[in-house]
Amino acid sequence: MVPLNWYLMLSATVFMIGVFGFLTRKNIIIMFMSVELMLNGVNISLVAFSHYLQDLRGQILVFFIITVAAAEAAIGLAIIIALFRNKSTAHVDEMNEMKG
Amino acid sequence: MNNYLLIPFLPLAAFLINILLGRNFLKEKAHWVSILAVAGSWVVAVMTLVDTMAGKTINQDLYSWIVSGNFKVSVGFLIDQLTVVMLIVVTTCSTLIHIYSVGYMHGDKGYYRFFAYLSLFTFCMLMLVMANNFLQLYFGWEGVGLCSYFLIGYYFDKKSASDAGKKAFIVNRFGDFGFGIGIFMIFLTFGTIYYEPVFAQAGGFANNTVNFLGYDVHLMTLIALLLFCGSVGKSAQMPLHVWLPDAMEGPTPVSALIHAATMVTAGVFLVARCSPIFSLSETALMVVALTGAITSLFAATIGLVQNDIKRIIAYSTISQLGYMFLACGVGAYSAGVFHLYTHAFFKALLFLCAGSVMHAMAGELNLQKMGGLKKYMPVTYLTMLLASLSIAGVPGFAGFFSKDEILWLAYSGPSPVGKLVWAIGTVVAFLTAFYSFRLIFLTFHGKFRGTHEQEHHLHESPKVMTIPLILLCVGAIASGWVGIPHLLGGGAHFTEFMKPVLGHPEGHGTHSEEWMVMAVSVIAGFSGIGLAALFYLVRTDIPVKLAAGLSGVHKLLFNKYYVDEFYSFLIVRPAIWTAKNILIGITDAKIIEAIVNGVPKAIGGFSQVIRKVQTGFLQHYATIMATGILIIIALMLLR
Amino acid sequence: MMEQVIMNKLGFPILSTLIFLPIAGAALLLLIPRAKESLAKWVGLLVSIAAFILSIPLFTNFDKSTHLMQFAERHAWIPSWNITYYLGLDGISVLFVLLSTLITILCVLISWNSIKTKVKEFYISILIMEGAMIGVFCSLDFMLFYLFWEAMLIPMYLLIGVWGGPNRIYAAVKFFLYTLVGSVLMLVGIIVLYFYAGRTFDILELMTKTYPYQMQFWLFWAFFAAFAVKVPMFPVHTWLPDAHTEAPTAGSVILAAVLIKMGAYGFLRFSLPLLPEASRAMTPVMLTLSVIAIIYGAVICLAQTDLKRLIAYSSVSHMGFVTLGIFALNLQGMEGGILQMINHGVVTGALFLSVGAIYDRTHTRQIADYGGVASVMPVYATAFMIFTLASIGLPATNGFIGEFLIILGGFTANQWAGVLAATGIIIGAGYMLWLYQRVFFMEVNQKVAGLNDIDAREIITLLPMVLLIFWIGVYPNAFLGFMHESVKHLLERVNSGSVHEMNMAKNIMELIK
């Protein structure tokens, strides 16, 4: 049986890849994918704990997250397409309307 | 019998009818309403006089006006000997002047308005004299002031007229300021402001002192002087006399009614009414006597050199009012009221005659442009001459008896300043005779000095104007006969009649002294007339030379001692300057607004600094967030 | 607690009706389609007239022989925090409800032709304003009071900010922030009281408790912040000229006639009875501020060139009289103060109505643009003259009764206060008559030549004010009678303990040494 730590390390690695991807990449699609990676990293740890603790509630939460992520992907991509149509670019540095 | 209520309320009804219906319905018939009302008042006033002479007085509340805790005051009426004399003076003069105005104001575009104001004035004046408490007196007091404001500024499209009206009102407010505080002191002292209990209790406070604004002062002196402030304003005494000459901007009937016969004498009435209070304070009486004496001298000297026919009469009014105060100040209240009563007739007559002259001269006021009018307007000439003889104190005329009584009581009375004010009064008698006859001679004698068109236009006034002149002239001659002194074989009925209200003036002197005083004043009067005749009939070059020789004095007198300029410099301009430059410019703008607008500005400045953090780059925000989470995790782990 | 009040016996909940009828009217206005906006005026007029008619029983059925709250209604509202829906009126507040309902009608009438944009929203704001104003005067629960107090701000903010003059945004924001800062401090005070008194917002119950002096002191200043801004007292008055100048006529009228009365009302309803010791101790400060306001406001009027700004500053001066009367802490002063609040509402309201009437014709507020109006518009000039005279306190007008009682009370409490306040009357005559002269007298200015005199609608608008001026002036007892018992009771509460009476007696003895 694979020990819990291994799962957690995998989860942390995937999550951190997501974080760094989000912080360093400038293309908005890739940043979006990084967010999905972070979510999946969390999902892995949830499933691992669920199995370890023999508690199904963790897996229920994972389903919930997957559903939300799917919805989020749909809306997020739609927003990105709208943005692209407006700005003709997917580069985040071009999008600073919120500058104070 | 509540008939007496008709006296004030008839004119009030006339006012309401005229102001509501006058513009659209009554128009040039407006005078009928007012004249009938005031004539009705006159009839009732005469009936009241008969009742009062039979010894019947009335003191009755109509309805409760203000009630607040222990402060209670009603609209109420007191009719005694003093009131009734005032009623007769007011309603008689008012009726005659109403009639005169029909001719004088003929064709004016505000005809109904004029009569409405006259009626309102009559109402307020009657409320003033009939009050049985101080607050209603104050009501009438302010009411007549208001009507005076309206009527002085009657030709409101003229700047000088509206200025004069405003000035009259505001200067009077200065006097009323003291008067109002006087009423407060009366209430705090006596717990009531009705005449009857106040005067009844006044004696009990004769020796009390009171702390007023941090100073201990004699209570009765304080109250008397505060009340006297009101009198000084209303009766145009120094230093608040400045409004009366300017008030001549109003139509002449107004000057006759308000600024000669009735309203301006309200101050004298107030002092006479409050004689029980004034008598308790020697200081207050002395102030009254000296104010009166100085004012009468001061105004008479100005009157010597003025050229405006109405202003001369206005200064003469101020001077004669000073005479009345002089009388009150030496304790001779009944003599003061007697002079008030005779003065009302001859002074109203003088004004109306001046109005008649103006009517003929198409509004010209300058004496130097008149002359020789007697052949064109004989009735006016004759009546004005008789009025001037009366004011100059020629024996037999009304003015002689009242003036003589004042001078005699000043000379013989117990007042410490009696002899001094007697001397001043005698000098003033001389000056009065001089300027009155200067006016007569310059207007009616000699050659006409105006333009040719004016000369062509000269005519006697219509009957509706001359008949009131003749009737007033009867008053100017005969009104004094009710007070012929014992010395001349009369009964001094007037003083006797007033005795229940005003007491009996004390005079200690021998018959020979009394003859002497009378002789001196008569000589003063005749020499004034004689000198005027010399200057303006015989040697007309003297006045010119004199004015040139004494140009400094002449200039000072001609500019009325520069009092107006002094007030403008001392009060009016500093007040506006302060408002503009300090209150608006500094306090409001630089201090309060600086704080009010400064706080939001400081907050705004602070956010200007921290808004830099909001770069608008998504990844900067995310980095900061991630760093924050890392720090929180680190802290939790290290704990 | 029930025995402290007289419940409403009229057969219908009169106070709730008065509060919610206008608000319901506002909701009704929402349903009017934009195309038929002129209908909005009629709805506004009818609703405000209905509210006025419904408020008449307050005048006729009021029991003048008691100080207790009348027409009371009480329902649980948020039981967990002990917040109740509690309404009632006494002699101090009843006249203000009547004033509010009357003024609203006049505001609707005067705006008839002058509001051309967003007509529907305008009348919605006015009606909501009316409901909130009446709510403030009726509330006997602190939370309810606070709710209405803040609810008033929003429609007023909109009235100034949407329908105002060129500089309206600045004025509206200034008005809003000024009053909000004050009322937030009051909220803190309310919460402190709530916990100290054992979790109740019931004002009558709070009044039965006594509070330590230190606490009273701080609460007094917390309340002062809210009320002094509203009055407005010197030195927190500077929002008023801006708000008045920029507001549309109806806004100025409501502001002058009712809104700024709430500050003084707050002192009477809360500061004095809840914090008697602190109020007594602060009297010198309050009298000084009042006298400064009287003279300061009056002198500043001498230099104004803008009609509405001049009247606004005159309000500062007149409200100085009101606070002077209230803090004289004697019967004459306080009754005079309350009456003067009504008077000022009537007179200054009327002045703003009049200025609005002529502003609709000329679209200028500069005094220099006028002159000779009396020749062109005689009826208007007469009405304005009556308001001017009432403003300078001529006897037989209402202004005299109020000012006389106030100065009498002030003079009794402190001679200097009375004497200095009386100088305000001299200056008052100065600036008002000068204003009148510059606008109405002298030669006709080309800018006003050929103006039409006021029409029937405007005469109907001004007539009630003229009648009130003379009614109060000639027979003030009809109004003073409402106050006697309530004011007497309030003074007993403020001067509780015979300390004050002994001082009074001592003063009088000193006076008559």
Task: Characterise this structure.
The complex is a heterotrimer of chains A (100), B (639) and C (513). Chain A is mainly alpha-helical and 100 residues long. In chain A, 78% of the residues lie in helices and 0% in strands. In chain A, helix 2 runs antiparallel to helix 3 (57-87). The radius of gyration of chain A is 17 Å and the shape is elongated. Chain B has helices spanning 6-26, 30-53, 81-104, 111-130, 134-152, 159-190, 195-202, 219-234, 243-246, 252-261, 266-273, 275-278, 282-303, 309-329, 333-360, 378-391, 398-412, 418-444, 452-457, 463-478, 493-502, 511-538, 541-549, 551-558, 563-610, 618-638, and strands at residues 58-68, 71-79, 209-212, 215-218. In chain B, helix 8 runs antiparallel to helix 11 (266-273). The longest helix of chain B has 48 residues, at 563-610. Chain C has 513 residues and is mainly alpha-helical. In chain C, a hairpin with a 4-residue loop joins strand 2 (69-78) and strand 3. Chain C is globular and about 65 Å long. The interface between B and C is large, with 60 and 68 residues.
> Termini separation of chain B (Å)?
104 Å
What's the overall average pLDDT of chain B, rounded? 84
Structural class of chain A: mainly alpha
Residue fraction in strands of chain B: under 5%
How can the largest sheet of chain B be summarized? Answer: 2 strands, antiparallel
Q: How many DSSP H or I helices of chain A?
A: 3
Oligomer: heterotrimer
Poorly predicted runs of chain A: none
Number of separate strands of chain A? 0
Structural class of chain B: mainly alpha
Shape of chain B: globular
Topology, number of strands of chain B: 4
Radius of gyration of chain B: 31 Å
Element-level helix/strand string of chain B:
HHEEHHHHHEEHHHHHHHHHHHHHHHHHHH
Features of this protein?
heterotrimer; A: mainly alpha; 78% helix; C: 513 residues; three-stranded mixed β-sheet; 73% helix
Ordered list of secondary-structure elements with their pairings:
The complex is a heterotrimer of chains A (100), B (639) and C (513).
Chain A: H1 4-24, H2 28-53, H3 57-87
Chain B: H1 6-26, H2 30-53, E1 58-68, E2 71-79, H3 81-104, H4 111-130, H5 134-152, H6 159-190, H7 195-202, E3 209-212, E4 215-218, H8 219-234, H9 243-246, H10 252-261, H11 266-273, H12 275-278, H13 282-303, H14 309-329, H15 333-360, H16 378-391, H17 398-412, H18 418-444, H19 452-457, H20 463-478, H21 493-502, H22 511-538, H23 541-549, H24 551-558, H25 563-610, H26 618-638
Antiparallel strand pairs in B: 1-2, 3-4
Helix pairs in contact in B: 1-2, 1-4, 2-3, 2-4, 3-4, 3-10, 3-15, 3-20, 4-5, 5-6, 5-10, 6-8, 8-11, 8-13, 10-15, 11-15, 13-14, 13-18, 14-15, 14-17, 14-18, 15-16, 15-17, 15-20, 15-21, 16-18, 16-20, 17-18, 17-22, 18-22, 23-24
Chain C: E1 5-7, H1 14-30, H2 38-60, E2 69-78, E3 83-89, H3 94-110, H4 119-138, H5 142-163, H6 168-196, H7 203-208, H8 213-230, H9 239-246, H10 249-259, H11 261-274, H12 276-301, H13 307-327, H14 331-362, H15 373-376, H16 378-391, H17 398-413, H18 415-440, H19 456-474, H20 477-494, H21 499-511
